[in-house]
Specification:
With 114 residues, the protein is mainly alpha-helical. The protein is built from five helices and two strands, in the order H-E-E-H-H-H-H. The radius of gyration is 16 Å and the shape is elongated.
């Protein structure tokens, strides 16, 4: 979540008649939502919910919550990977790190059961 809060995580490309401008934002910044870049905002909020649920699962782990945690982790990972659909100019090192960490988080939810 720290990487998602950094203002270097998500990218928007603005075009003028002369050139294009690349600006970076935090995943939690609602300007991304306003410019129809939904994936970072959805990733950010799903990761917050998933982290809270993971903290709850440290103390209690009923099967229903474990299943919900797994679904949230996979959904969050899928949303984070959507940034790659926008092209190479919209990818940052922080975005790649976020995606890799969320893939690891989703994998852990499946390994933990085995």
């Amino acid at each position: 979540m720290i990487l998602e809060a950094l203002p270097i995580s998500a990218v928007l490309i603005f075009a003028t008649p002369d050139a294009t401008h690349r600006r970076t934002f935090a995943y939690f910044d609602m300007i991304l939502f306003g410019y129809a870049n939904f994936a970072p905002v959805i990733t950010a909020w799903l990761s917050v919910i998933s982290s809270i649920l993971a903290l709850i699962l440290l103390f209690k782990s009923p099967p229903k919550l474990v299943k919900i945690d797994r679904i949230l982790a996979v959904g969050c990972t899928f949303a984070s990977l959507c940034i790659f659909l926008y092209g190479i100019r919209c990818i940052t090192a922080a975005g790649i790190a976020i995606s890799l960490l969320l893939i690891l988080r989703a994998a852990i939810t499946f390994i933990k059961e085995a």
